[in-house]
Amino acid sequence: MEFVLLILLSTLYAFAFLSGIFGKRRPALYMIYVALVLHAGLLIFRSVSAGHPPVSGIYEALILLSWLMLLKFCFLQKGSSALAVHVQRAGVLLAVLAALLLPQEFRTAALPEPALGNFWMYVHFPAYLFAAVTLFSALVLSAIRLFRKAENFPHASRMERDVRLAALFLWIAVFTEAAGARLSGGNYGSGDLSQLWSVITLMILSLYFFTRSPGWRALVLFLGFLSMLFAGIGAEHFLGV
After folding, report:
1. SS3 for the chain, per residue?
2. 21, 54, 162, 225: which has the fewest C-beta neighbours closer than 10 Å?
């Protein structure tokens, strides 16, 4: 059932992306809204079949990330740059395709790690992914501003709001991860490398508000996004002992 839903979603997202590219805005929106409902159904089905919310493993991360991206772009980003919309729809499509193409062993439902089995970690996972979504949105707008060399960029306030949202949700992710670690392991996870790297990411993002240069701001957002990816995927793997 999940595989069928993923194929339907990939088809809808592909047609919505192509419709937007060729200027068919209304059909693209209809397909996006239908896909939003189907995608929510996929998450509910996964939660029921797995016995827990989709908060463990790369497959569940991809299907939840793509839905959060879609949710943000549908309801929190109206009137955005057309180019940004195309890039973001492509991002949703790529995330769903990546989930679809994962080997079966990655898509098999498994029990989450003990640290994930409490309420705080069920908040941490979506908060971290939503921070990544808003930071990606700000990065796209910053790149557009940089390459167009626009002094009066019409989406500057939206870009700054996205950076603030990314920082807010990343703080929520850090605190809820610490609370979850305290509940399951008896400490606040002071030795957890992904948690430490999330704090480093927040320090990088803080530099955004100390510069006005579009080039430096784009660089800060790019480094912040790479740091978020490293915190979520690579910190334990590359720095773990």
Report:
1. CHHHHHHHHHHHHHHHHHHHHCCCHHHHHHHHHHHHHHHHHHHHHHHHHHCCCCCCHHHHHHHHHHHHHHHHHHHCCCCCCHHHHHHHHHHHHHHHHHHHHCCHHHHCCCCCCHHHCCHHHHHHHHHHHHHHHHHHHHHHHHHHHHHHCCCCCCCHHHHHHHHHHHHHHHHHHHHHHHHHHHHHHCCCCCCCHHHHHHHHHHHHHHHHHHCCCHHHHHHHHHHHHHHHHHHHHHHHHHHCC
2. 21
